[in-house]
């Protein structure tokens, strides 16, 4: 009996009905439903992990909405996992739903996940398969199963090439998606596909991966067991690549021999939400299809799919404020049909509709097409799983918090603005920070557009299917998000390698509001700070500690212990910084300048923090800056920055700063050292350009020094000077150029002596400045802002 006869046969002794499919293929899904309606089997066997048999009834739950995936993970190592994704247009999903609707038993018959995950562990230990455990992936022929994506051949590509196609996707659309089941014989497409795959298996064997032979042996055993129980009422839905192997006549003993000695690992299985984006190959999931949104459309709109698709496209473009009329849709449909006829295709496919949209609706531009591909061709559909699905306790607690805080997971990235003065927003912030501590990156902090105050946070939220694995992995730390984050923070503190890591962890604990973890973190922090003698490490650690003090007011956390540690750390930095800045090369000096900037900002915050109680720190730090500014052994870039910081704080008069600059830029100073001093004083994004614009005495000193640099030394200092001035805004550079072209003041000497510059008075005219202040305040809205602040304070105190 031929393979086609066996497939179509349904009489006594005809054998199982083998329905070979392409996974995530809408044409295969429609054909499977038609075949099952015609065959009416007594049991449906589906390629997939048999551990999921108990989860099959959940597919009938009203709250289960594809795309979803079966997730298997090792109990002792939750990060070792595998997915079996199913979309609404997947043949396996259609087979499951049909069986449940008809009250027909359904079973999964692929190799158990307990062996799959153990195989992955062995390969990782041997270093042969890379870092990641195997996942259920779609092979090029549409087959699903761990490891099958490693086939050395592309079956669809071979068949498409034989048919004269250069694109396997286009060939598949023409021969499967654009033709329905032949009238009177719903099994005809499966017969043809089995014959094609049989020829490929005869030529290529297992396709270069012997693991498929083991999987197929297990599937044959399961088919035999079903036949013994249900005789000839067995239908099998599997990857078309496997059909010839399942049809193959082998002995039970031979199949069992292939399965002997397989490794095992204890495994849990559940349903998790999936996304269309994760079904796409471009997302990094190597088992997907190029256009899940398009395939979903073909499955849900079997009649007039082109007209319905182009209507969707027009709706999207209109929502983006592009002018698209009904006439555009009509013309695009005509063009797509004409292109299909010219290319010899039975119906317009994705390439024809895309070309029509580009020409008619996008005026030849590919920019709108990128939006169409992202939103429609791929799509942001996120599946849903009912609460009754098995889950680790941590996942259940997270789901409860998501519902209470009204934070629904979504596949499309969105921004979330939080006002921490509001109770619900503060709770949302705590949840997101706790999840980040657990390695569950549902949200990423972003820069706030409206305010830089500590009471406001901005997050970018996007739920990825892999986060379900991260939740299961984090379940080892606790049964709730709070307890798990606390345990994880304590473990991270004890295991941290450097002081900066512990200080960053302390900041994250305050953001996440983990009071039970803070004592452990603070103890480790104090121990590490006492033992670390590297000034660079201390300077790196201080800013994170001081930032943490600012969260006390908004979040209501006790930062007293943190303030004591921060003050002690600052004192040690003050003592050790001047010696650490001596005799540094250029790279080390640049790094130390960054530390000086960070410590300066930290001291400013620490001196203002009520919990710190150390107002003297500011005076101590200014003394350190004076030492750095006048010590010849300190590199010029650090000396220049110290002078600038003192000037900005009002601790150094402009005349004194000009005197120091004049000494540095004198002929006796090596040009390279002088250029480094200038870089420290007016470079590094510190607003030095505006300083030179508004203080022409300093600009005159720089100009006079630069014009006096010897020709042989100019080449050496040019890169540093170029780096300094190229960081300025274009408008600042243009203004400086105009001032230099005109000549600052009446000469550098006169300017330094205090002679008035053309266009500038000798001093400030406070009376004229006071006259314009009301207008400036009105333009900036400062009066309204202060009124709102007063109202808020009155509400808080009241």
UniProtKB/TrEMBL annotation:
<feature type="compositionally biased region" description="Basic and acidic residues">
    <location>
        <begin position="123"/>
        <end position="134"/>
    </location>
</feature>
<dbReference type="InterPro" id="IPR043737">
    <property type="entry name" value="DUF5682"/>
</dbReference>
<dbReference type="Pfam" id="PF18934">
    <property type="entry name" value="DUF5682"/>
</dbReference>
<feature type="region of interest" description="Disordered">
    <location>
        <begin position="123"/>
        <end position="149"/>
    </location>
</feature>
<protein>
    <submittedName>
        <fullName>DUF5682 family protein</fullName>
    </submittedName>
</protein>
<dbReference type="InterPro" id="IPR050458">
    <property type="entry name" value="LolB"/>
</dbReference>
């Amino acid at each position: 009996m031929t393979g086609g006869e066996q497939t179509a046969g349904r009489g006594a002794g005809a054998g199982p009905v083998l329905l070979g499919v392409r996974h995530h293929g809408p044409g295969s899904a429609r054909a499977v439903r038609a075949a099952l309606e015609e065959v009416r089997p007594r049991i449906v066997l589906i390629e997939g992990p048999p551990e999921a048999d108990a989860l099959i009834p959940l597919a009938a739950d009203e709250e289960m909405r594809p795309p979803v995936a079966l997730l298997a993970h090792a109990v002792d190592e939750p990060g070792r996992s595998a997915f079996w994704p199913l979309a609404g247009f997947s043949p396996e999903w259609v087979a499951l739903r049909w069986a449940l609707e008809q009250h027909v038993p359904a079973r999964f018959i692929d190799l158990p996940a307990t062996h799959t995950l153990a195989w992955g562990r062995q390969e990782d230990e041997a270093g042969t398969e890379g870092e990641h455990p195997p996942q259920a992936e779609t092979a090029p022929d549409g087959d699903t199963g761990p490891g099958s994506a490693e086939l050395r051949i592309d079956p669809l590509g071979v068949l498409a090439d034989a048919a004269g196609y250069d694109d396997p996707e286009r060939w598949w659309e023409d021969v499967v998606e654009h033709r329905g089941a032949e009238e009177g014989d719903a099994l005809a497409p499966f017969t043809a596909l089995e014959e094609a795959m049989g020829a490929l298996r005869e030529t290529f064997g297992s396709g270069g991966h012997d693991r498929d032979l083991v999987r197929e042996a297990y599937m044959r055993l399961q088919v035999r067991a079903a036949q013994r129980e249900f005789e000839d009422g067995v239908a099998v839905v599997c990857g078309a690549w496997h059909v010839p192997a399942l049809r193959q006549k082998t002995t039970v003993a031979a199949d069992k021999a292939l399965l002997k000695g397989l490794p095992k690992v204890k495994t849990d299985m559940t349903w998790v939400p999936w996304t269309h984006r994760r079904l796409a190959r471009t997302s990094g999931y190597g088992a997907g299809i190029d256009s899940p949104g398009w395939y979903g459309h073909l499955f849900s709109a079997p009649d007039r799919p082109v007209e319905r698709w182009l209507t969707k496209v027009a709706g999207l473009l209109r929502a983006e404020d592009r002018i698209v009329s009904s006439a555009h849709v009509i013309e695009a449909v005509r063009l797509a049909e004409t292109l299909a006829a010219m290319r010899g295709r039975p119906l317009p496919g994705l390439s024809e509709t895309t070309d029509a949209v580009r020409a008619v609706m996008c005026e030849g531009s590919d920019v709108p097409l990128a939006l169409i591909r992202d939103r429609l061709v791929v799509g942001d559909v996120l599946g849903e799983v009912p609460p009754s699905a098995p889950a680790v306790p941590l996942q259940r607690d997270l789901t409860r918090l998501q519902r209470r805080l009204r934070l629904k997971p979504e596949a499309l990235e969105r921004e979330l603005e939080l006002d921490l003065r509001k109770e619900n927003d503060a709770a949302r912030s705590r949840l997101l920070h706790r999840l980040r501590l657990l390695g569950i990156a549902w949200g990423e902090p972003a820069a706030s557009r409206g305010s830089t105050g500590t009471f406001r946070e901005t997050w970018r939220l996007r739920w990825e299917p892999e986060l379900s694995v991260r939740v299961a992995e984090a379940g080892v730390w606790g049964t709730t998000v709070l307890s798990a984050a606390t345990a994880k923070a304590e473990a991270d503190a004890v295991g941290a390698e450097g002081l900066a890591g512990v200080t960053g962890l302390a900041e994250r604990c305050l953001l996440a509001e983990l009071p039970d973890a803070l004592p452990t973190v603070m103890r480790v922090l104090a121990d590490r700070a006492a033992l670390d003698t590297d000034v660079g490490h201390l300077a790196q650690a201080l800013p994170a500690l001081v930032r943490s003090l600012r969260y006390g007011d908004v979040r209501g956390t006790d930062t007293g212990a943190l303030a004591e540690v921060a003050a002690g750390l600052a004192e040690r930095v003050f003592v050790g910084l001047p010696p650490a800045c001596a005799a540094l090369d250029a790279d080390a000096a640049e790094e130390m300048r960054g530390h000086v900037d960070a410590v300066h900002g930290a001291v400013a915050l620490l001196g203002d923090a009520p919990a710190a109680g150390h107002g003297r720190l500011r005076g101590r730090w200014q003394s350190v800056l004076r030492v750095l500014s006048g010590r010849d052994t300190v590199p010029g870039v650090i000396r220049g920055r110290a002078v600038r910081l003192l000037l900005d704080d009002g601790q150094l008069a402009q005349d004194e700063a000009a005197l120091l600059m004049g000494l540095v830029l004198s002929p006796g100073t090596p040009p390279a050292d002088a250029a480094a001093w200038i870089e420290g004083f007016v470079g590094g994004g510190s607003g030095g350009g505006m300083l030179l614009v508004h203080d022409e005495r300093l600009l005159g000193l720089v100009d006079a020094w630069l014009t006096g640099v010897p020709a042989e030394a100019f080449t050496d200092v040019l890169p540093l000077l170029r780096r300094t001035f190229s960081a300025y805004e274009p408008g600042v550079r243009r203004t400086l150029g105009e001032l230099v072209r005109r000549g600052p003041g009446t000469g550098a000497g006169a300017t330094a002596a205090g002679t008035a510059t053309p266009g500038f008075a000798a001093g400030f005219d406070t009376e004229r400045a006071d006259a314009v202040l009301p207008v400036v305040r009105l333009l900036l809205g400062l009066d309204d802002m202060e009124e709102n602040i007063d109202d808020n304070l009155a509400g808080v105190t009241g």
